[in-house]
Design brief:
Belongs to the class I-like SAM-binding methyltransferase superfamily. RsmB/NOP family. By secondary structure, the protein is of the alpha/beta class. It is built from 19 helices and 14 strands. The chain folds into two domains: about 300 residues, Rossmann fold (3-Layer(aba) Sandwich), CATH 3.40.50; about 150 residues, no CATH class. Strands 5, 6, 7, 8, 9, 10, 11, 12, 13 and 14 form a ten-stranded mixed sheet that branches. A four-stranded antiparallel sheet has the order 2-3-1-4. Strand 6, helix 8 and strand 7 form a beta-alpha-beta unit. Helix 6 crosses helix 7 and helix 17 crosses helix 18. Bound molecules: S-adenosylmethionine. S-adenosylmethionine binds next to helix 7 and strand 6.
């Protein structure tokens, strides 16, 4: 006889100990889907843009097969979004992932000794290792001294999809707390630049701390700003912007960043605060630079020029080479996030997930209601006003606007819903003729499935033994 929901809940509670992101589940042997099976699944999916959005989902199974004590509200949420709860099956077998800081390869054995477990190499993702999910890393020396990162393998895949190359200028439009940004910085080494943007100041401050901990800040600058309106191009893109000597007393020139803010910075920030409180809420948030590294191109730049917005002509040739939009979402694909409700209480699920879903713009909601499983949605009926309200769409559109011609953009969410993924993509493509979906070459080796639109990919917990993630990659055509 199947255990009752309450019994399952109790078992789950026993496993869950630490509320602070350190879920303590008893690890079992990993029961992974062989790579070939994953590939076969991909091959089964069609390739045309108007394909059936059911592809990649198995709707035939009952919710009970997930084996998780999913509350009715969540099951309802999954049903509403055409998702099969069996995607969450075997969640306890999903390992924890760590990323090894490049250069620390020779210390693997020491790290294994300290963590008291074997680091299993993730064969499809460089520098990633899986460890049993009950292993906690936060208190270890390896973690504290910046030799390892805690990062899900699917998130690593989103970064790899961007294919950064030496010298790229990269924009991370929703960057905090910074796991992807740090990986980007590791991949770029001492070349190019990274601009991180996030609307949440406290989260961006955590990102700054992370950059400093891992000693990765030299090429980076961080802005508290609304990614839907952010409009600054990489440093050096304005032809008339030359770096100046910082010997003099010119207060308009950026000096080396220090955690102590100058009198001028404090005055500017105070001015902005007054401005923001009196600004109409529709007015764009003025970007606030909260960190810049010594090789980010900011030191020696003139303030007035650094904060000058670029027009589309400048952007097409001197915009970012790579952009990642890791949009805020309902987090329903993240098993670790869903597990937290065992601690927070399932009653908070309504507020934390369903209300979040509601507060998204109307476009996405309308989409989820009007999209039928044949993909022949009536999305065209959403008014252009509602389209403007779409936060994800606005983030994606603005990220794409800041991309130079020939550059590439990765859009990812840790939601498995169609409305937040394929729905947004389809609408985006219909309004941006210069955008073309690209095949993610590295995905041939990943344990993912194809998304509901050709060339997009989905990691679902059951198939990939990672958190759920959706990834799409675009390039910008000249037109
Ligand atoms: C999924 S998290 C990003 C995770 C991050 N990429 C990482 O790897 O650590 C989404 C982020 O988007 C930010 N965000 C939400 N709305 C935003 C907006 N309009 N502009 C910029 N950032 C936004 C949130 O504050 C949150 O930090």
């Amino acid at each position: 006889m199947a255990p009752s929901k309450n019994l399952l809940k109790l078992r789950m509670k026993k496993r869950f100990v630490n509320p602070k992101n350190e879920e303590v589940w008893k690890g079992r042997d990993m029961d992974r889907v062989p790579g070939e099976a994953g590939k076969a699944q991909e091959r089964r999916c069609g390739v045309s843009l108007g394909m059936d959005l059911k592809a990649g989902f198995d709707l035939s199974q009952e919710n009970s097969v997930s084996g998780l004590p999913l509350p009715d509200a969540f099951v309802e949420f999954l049903k509403e979004n055409g998702l099969d709860s069996s995607a969450y099956a075997g969640a306890e077998t999903i390992p924890r992932y760590i990323r090894l800081k490049p250069g620390c390869e020779s210390q693997l054995m020491d790290i294994e000794t300290e963590l008291d477990c074997k680091l299993e190499k993730v064969d499809w993702l460089p520098n990633f290792f899986s460890i049993p999910s009950h292993i906690q890393i936060a208190s270890t020396n390896a973690y504290r001294s910046g030799k390892i990162y805690g990062m899900d393998a699917a998130s690593g895949a989103a970064v790899m999809a961007l294919d950064v190359t030496f010298g790229d200028h990269v924009l991370d439009l929703c960057c905090a707390p910074g796991a992807k940004l740090c990986m980007l910085a590791d991949l770029l080494g001492n070349s190019g630049s990274i601009t991180g943007v996030d609307v949440a100041q406290h989260r961006l401050a955590a990102c700054r701390t992370m950059l400093q901990k891992y000693k990765l800040g030299d090429q980076c600058r961080l802005f508290v700003a609304d990614g839907t309106t952010f409009s600054l191009v990489p440093v050096g893109s304005h032809t008339d912007m030359k770096l100046c000597s910082i010997d003099g007393q010119d207060m308009d020139i950026f000096r080396e960043w220090t955690s102590k803010r100058s009198w001028k910075d404090r005055k500017d920030a105070a001015k902005k605060k007054v401005g923001t409180s009196t600004q109409a809420s529709e007015e764009p948030l003025e970007p606030e630079l909260i960190f810049y590294g010594r090789d980010s191109g900011v030191v020696g730049a003139q303030r007035t020029k650094l904060f000058r917005m670029a027009d589309d002509n400048v952007i097409s040739t001197s915009g970012y080479d790579k952009v990642i939009v890791d949009a805020e979402c309902t987090h329903d694909g993240s098993v670790k996030h869903i597990q937290k409700f065992e601690y927070w209480g399932w009653s908070t699920f309504q507020r934390r997930v369903l209300d979040a879903k509601r507060t998204q713009n109307l476009t996405c909601l309308q989409w989820s209601m009007t999209l039928d499983w044949t993909g022949q949605s009536s999305y065209g009926t959403a008014s252009s006003e509602n389209r403007q309200q779409s936060k994800k769409l606005a983030l994606l559109t603005n990220g794409f606007r800041l991309l130079k011609v020939g550059g590439s953009l990765v859009y990812s969410t840790c939601s498995l819903t169609v409305s937040q993924n394929e729905g947004v993509i389809k609408l985006f493509l219909s309004t941006n003729p210069s955008a073309e979906l690209m095949k993610i070459d590295a995905a041939d080796k990943w344990r993912c499935r194809c998304g509901g639109i050709a060339r997009t990919v989905r990691f679902d917990p059951k198939t990939s033994q990672t958190s759920g993630l959706f990834i799409a990659k675009f390039t910008k055509l000249a037109c």
